[in-house]
Amino acid sequence: MAMLHFTAQSCSPHQCHSYDIDVADGGAGRKGQCGVFMAALLTLVVCLCEGAETARITARGQELTILFGGDTAFGESYADNRKELLRERGYNYSLDRLKPMMESADFCVLNLEAPICRPLQSPLEGKKNPIHWTHWTQAPATLRAHGVRLVTLGNNHAFDYGTGGLEETFRALGNHRVE
Prior knowledge:
By secondary structure, this protein is an alpha/beta fold. It folds into 2 domains: 3-52; 67-175, no CATH class. Helices cover 35% and strands 25% of the residues. It has 6 helices and 6 strands, in the order E-E-H-E-E-H-H-H-E-H-E-H. A 6-stranded mixed β-sheet has the order 2-1-3-4-5-6. Strand 5 (107-112), helix 5 and strand 6 form a beta-alpha-beta unit.
C-alpha cells in the first residue's frame, strides 16, 4: 500500500514548526478521501496545539494554507466607545487590516465570539457579564466579503441569547454561505 506524506508548517508570531506525517493512501474514492481528510485533520490538530495562526499543509504535491483567527466580533454589545467607532467606520474596518493576510490563505477560519442575532432579552441577563451579540445581517455579510467561509462557535458567548440566538446564528451564517 502506498503512503501519503503530509508536510505541515505551523507559524505563530513567535515561532514556526514543521511536521511530517505519513498515512496509508487509500487511493481514489471515498476511502481514499477519508484517509486524506483524517491526515489533514490530524495535521491541523498538531498545528493548533502549537498555537498556530496559519497552517500550511502539503500533500500529493499540492499546498493548502489555512488561516485561523481568534475571537472575532464587531463590537455592537461592547463599550460605548466601540459602538461609536463601529458607527463611524463601519463593519469592514475591523477586518480591513487583516484582509491581505486573509486573502493570501486558501481557507480562513475565525472564532465567532458573539451570536449573530437580534439583541432581545437574554436568558442570562443578571447571571453573566458581558453578554455579546453581533448584527444579524451586517456581521455575516462582512465575514463573507472578507473570504470567511467557516467560523467556530465553541466559546463562552455562543449561548448568550440561548438556543434561539444560536439557531438565529446558524440561519444568518447559512444565508451568507458561511458554515
